[in-house]
Specification:
Oligomer: single chain
Shape: globular
Strand order of the largest sheet: 1-2
Largest sheet: 2 strands, antiparallel
Number of strands: 2
Number of domains: 2
Number of helices: 10
Radius of gyration: 19 Å
Helix content: 40-55%
Strand content: under 5%
Length: 221
Amino acid sequence: MRGRFGKHLLAATLRGSAQKNLMQAHLNELSTYGLLRDMRQDDILLYIDALLAARCLQVSPGEYPTISITELGGRVMRERERVELPLPLSSGQSSANSPVPDSGAPGKPGTPSKTIEETYVLYREGLSLEEIARQRKYTRATIESHLVDCVRAGFSVEVSRFVPDTDGALIERAITEHGTQKLKPIHDSLPDSITYNMIRFVIADRRRLRKAANWLPDKAC
């Protein structure tokens, strides 16, 4: 597709859609047209988002962002390199169509897994996401998901390090409009540059702050 189309048309092509703009662009003539016809459009989009997070695909800037393959993605496609995809359905993460798990009470965090605790220790040491990912041999998106779980558990995580204020404001507005029961409507209403993990960070932080307020003694209110 030579990087000329957005992710929704990419997913539609893989699924074998007969929509008009796809046919007009002759995408039905590609050898990969309908290759994933047994999958739902939403599930294909989850894989595309995971490939974006793993830096195998990239999104162009501008009003009409398009998807193209990166050098890393080319190596993976030719099976010269392997990556771990941070899919929402994997352990410790929420499906885009599932409710976001609630967190424990502030000051009384839950018990994250050992691997998440190891990520948190490195975060507290001041390492960047890239440094943590390199040291732990995970993708950046997987490290982000570890830290989202830490926020849910009530640990001290500076969410603004991972969600710029401008993106946070957009996410907040989308949450006001769509609620937090499902992530996909929120994600679909936002620019492609905003990932599921960024949305999870904001939702987890909102719940942490709300629980912190509820746990304040009466005299502090």
